[in-house]
């Protein structure tokens, strides 16, 4: 599966670079949206067929929120730590990690604040995060752990990464992944500006 | 953002209800996996296009790309670490993963 994902992204990059006119990017948002809806619909059907899943989630309760909490703290701390080695301002490095894989929003927030280069960095870094997540989720689920595989996805755990998680783990983990994605998605526009304003 | 969230959640719940009530024909049910894989790969292909079509992004990939890549590795690595640390508090049923 990881190989298929890599090939699909790679072919897309090639097609976009060599064959498509720049005007095509106007339609991409709509195409992605429709594709996501189709995917989520079928993931929903998969979840629905597991009839005892709601009971399991009720049993988990608020503990399910530990996963997004770990993802948020881990992403921000991780990017701050590496920011020190890359000679970056710690708050700016942390803000990139706080994008949690949501490249369009994180780069837009930074751009609107006047950070041009940081915005490009946030865009690329969070695109890479999504690609890393998509490629490695099946491997991490198999060799490290299912919840750990969810953690790589961040905000994308509720949409782009969800089908991969659903294929690589089980219905219960898929539901936690969705909760994680939703929580991270809500968190990005809140924590990113806050971390950027930390005077360090 | 809120609208997007409601839209995604809505379509997921709709699919969930259909799956729960067994409203699917057995023929379509057998093809679920294939449809999921196909639409996923299509989506990733389109995502690749968004990167490839943007000249600015492509040239940036080689200049600031390395820095961005290192940051994302650390963000992902620490996410795995922190979730691994809180994992023992989450009572999941452990099952073997097929495939």
Strand content of chain A: under 5%
The rough form of chain A would be described as globular
Output the number of helix runs of chain A. 10
Biggest β-sheet of chain B: count, sense, barrel? none
Greatest interface (CB-CB under 8 A), with counts per chain = A-B, 105 and 74 residues
Class of secondary structure makeup of chain A: mainly alpha
**What is the count of structural domains of chain A?**
1
Task: Kindly report how far apart the N and C termini of chain A lie.
Answer: 42 Å
What's the assembly state of these chains?
heterodimer
Description:
The complex is a heterodimer of chains A (200) and B (99). Chain A has one domain (2-197). In chain A, 79% of the residues lie in helices and 0% in strands. Chain A is built from 10 helices and no strands. Chain A has helices at 2-18, 25-49, 53-60, 66-85, 90-97, 103-112, 116-143, 146-153, 162-168, 171-197. In chain A, helix 1 packs antiparallel against helix 7, helix 6 packs parallel to helix 10 (171-197) and helix 7 packs parallel to helix 9 (162-168). With 99 residues, chain B is mostly helical. Chain B folds into 2 domains: 1-25; 31-89, no CATH class. Chain B contains 5 helices and no strands. The mean pLDDT of chain B is 80. The interface between A and B is large, with 105 and 74 residues.
Blueprint (SSEs and pairs):
The complex is a heterodimer of chains A (about 200) and B (about 100).
Chain A: H1 2-18, H2 25-49, H3 53-60, H4 66-85, H5 90-97, H6 103-112, H7 116-143, H8 146-153, H9 162-168, H10 171-197
Helix pairs in contact in A: 1-7, 4-5, 4-8, 4-10, 5-7, 5-10, 6-7, 6-10, 7-8, 7-9, 8-10, 9-10
Chain B: H1 2-20, H2 26-30, H3 32-53, H4 55-63, H5 65-86
């Amino acid at each position: 599966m990881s190989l298929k994902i890599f090939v699909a992204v790679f072919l897309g990059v090639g097609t976009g670079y060599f064959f498509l006119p720049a005007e095509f990017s106007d339609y991409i948002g709509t195409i992605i949206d429709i594709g996501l809806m189709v995917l989520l619909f079928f993931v929903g059907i998969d979840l629905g067929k597991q009839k005892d899943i709601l009971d399991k989630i009720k049993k988990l309760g608020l503990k399910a929120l530990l996963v997004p909490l770990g993802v948020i703290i881990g992403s921000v701390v991780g990017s701050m730590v590496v920011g020190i080695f890359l000679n970056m301002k710690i708050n700016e490095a942390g803000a990139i990690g706080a994008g949690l894989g949501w490249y369009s929003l994180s780069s837009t927030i930074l751009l609107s604040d006047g950070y041009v280069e940081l915005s490009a960095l946030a865009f690329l870094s969070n695109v890479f995060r999504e690609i890393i997540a998509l490629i490695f989720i099946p491997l991490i689920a198999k060799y490290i752990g299912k919840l750990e595989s969810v953690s790589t996805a961040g905000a994308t755990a509720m949409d782009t990464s969800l089908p991969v998680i659903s294929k690589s783990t089980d219905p219960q983990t898929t539901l936690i992944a969705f909760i994680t994605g939703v929580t991270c998605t809500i968190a990005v526009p809140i924590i990113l500006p806050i971390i950027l304003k930390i005077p360090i | 953002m809120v609208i997007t969230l409601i839209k995604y959640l809505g379509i997921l719940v709709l699919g969930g209800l259909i799956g729960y009530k067994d409203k699917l024909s057995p023929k379509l049910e057998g093809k679920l996996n294939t449809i999921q894989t196909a639409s996923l790969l299509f989506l990733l292909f389109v995502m690749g296009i968004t990167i490839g079509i943007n000249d600015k992004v492509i040239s940036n990939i080689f200049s600031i790309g390395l820095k961005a890549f290192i940051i994302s590795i650390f963000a992902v690595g620490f996410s795995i670490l922190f979730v691994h640390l809180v994992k023992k508090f989450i009572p999941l049923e452990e099952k073997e993963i097929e495939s």
